[in-house]
Amino acid sequence: MGESFITGWGHTKFGRFDGDLEALILTAAREAIDHAGITPDAIDAIWIGHFNAGMVHEAFPSSLVLNLDPAMRFTPATRCENACASGSAAVYSAREAIRAGSIKRALVIGVEKMTAKDTAGVTEALGGASYQREEAGTSFPQVFARFAQAYSQAYGDCSETLARIAAKNHANAMNNPLAQLQKALSVEFCNTVSDKNPMIAAPLRMTDCSLISDGAAALVLTDESLLGEHARAVGFRAAVQVNDFMPMSRRTLLDFDGPAEAFRRAYAAAGITAADLSCAEVHDCFTIAELLTYEAMGITPRGRGRQAIEDGTVLAGGRLPVNLSGGLKAKGHPVGATGVSMHVMGARQVLGEAAQMQVPGAELACVFNMGGAAVANYVSILEAAK
Q: Positive or negative CA dihedral for 382, 383, 384, 386?
């Protein structure tokens, strides 16, 4: 069984994109193929992560990338959907095909165009990723507000901690030219309800919520036997997927069991602990999700996640910087693209190619991508190929 390596990538700027879904796909794909130093005919198969849920009319996007070059005609192409983890689902599917020996080189694209709908339309589309028998009509801000309410009830008001997380990620995005919102926000602003920062679902304010975004990211994955043809290679020390029960009624919210189990399995597979990580890109769809992730990944004990930001552990320059890209909060969250984007950011770190975001000497980068309310959970540990 061969191993799979990231050998190239592409990444559009996240934000409002005037073109259509196909243009996003082709832009990221072309950049990834060029970055890998190959030609389109070298791709054996294609996977596309795309949630959609009616946000655009293109419900069958997998073959759109074939329009990039006539040489790509007849290349197998498959769409993957796993809510906000659709991008990681595509990455893992391609990786497994290479490890199984079915193919030698894959193109993975994550894409979403969300701004074609208004905020109400996007909210309705995303709401389809919850358990409809019990949670239909509940928006995702309301879903994650339940996590924040439970956290504050158990451990004390967490509003200021959430504001600190938001301000941190906005500050980090200032170093990422691909980020949607490159605007520094103070803790005071993020912690104050105002006309510019309204309450969305108590206690979550607008600054606690990720952005509505268009964007695409792409990876070329290559079998180890072909690494001599590439200038760079990033390997997976671990790649773990854990799915949990979908109904929130079947889970204890504060345990964040699905993410915690994914981290446990990834660390065991990699032979490491959280202390060995150099940096992490985690799924901060809402600031409370990042706070709970600090605990799930073992940076702090349960109930004490606020220590990670108060003592500077997760800040830029801290022992384990989290979301140096700006995270979903400020980089943006084009749903299907997010998991692929996270892998691009991690790969750049371990190769020393992250520019102003770079952690000096980064060796292990962690990626945590989550679909739904901690239902589909993907943890990757990335390292430069030896």
A: negative
